[in-house]
Amino acid sequence: MKKAIALGCLATIAAADYTLHRRKPRWLLIGVFDHPAHVATAALFALNAPGRPARWTAAFMVGSLLPDLDHVPLVLRERHPTADDPRPVSHCLLAVAPVAALAGLTQSERLHGAASGMVAHYVRDLGVGSGVPLLWPVTNRSLRVPYAVYATACAALAGRVFTATVRSP
Asked: What is the CA angle 84-127-133, rounded to 5?
């Protein structure tokens, strides 16, 4: 089952990125393709994090979409951003800090999962679009990696699922 999920994740990412790159949908439709790709990226990480409780995994998957909550008010604006516009500062490590700190203080698996999921969100955004202002407020510069680095990382995570050995008790 895990192998099928890993292949499905790769297919989701490939289809979304092909559509986003080649078809260049309107801003309001970008999320229809990008959000499933964020979830698929996070799922590849989750498949490689065995032994995590279900509540951590569920929060991790939700956390993989949390940074894009800033898109909700943008829908109400007359002028929508384009795919080439820089991402807002909600896509920085400082945004993860309160969730991670609260997770540490409360020992909450859910909050730990959500904070980790937010980081997984940034992994995808590093390889697609205009990059991520990860180090804001230290610098406004958006960090990027070549798409091939992101795609190779996803393929490697899927490959780990296929090569994982089954351990007997």
From this structure: 65
DSSP one-letter code for 20: I
Beta bridge partners of 143: 132
C-alpha 37/C-alpha 22 separation (Å) is 16
Specify the pTM: 0.90
Judged on CB neighbours under 10 Å (0-12, 13-18, 19+), 89 is middle
Give the tens place of pLDDT for each residue, 22-37: 998 887 788 899 999 9
| Cβ neighbours of residue 58 closer than 8 Å, sequence gap 6 or more | 110, 113
Residue for token digits 């937010």? 118
The full DSSP string for 77-144 is SSSPP-TTSPPPTTSSHHHHHHHHHHHHHHT-HHHHHHHHHHHHHHHHHHHSTT-B-TTTTT--PPB-
What are 37-69's pLDDT values in tens digits? 999 999 999 999 989 999 999 999 999 999 998
Q: Which two tokens stand for residue 165?
A: 């050995």
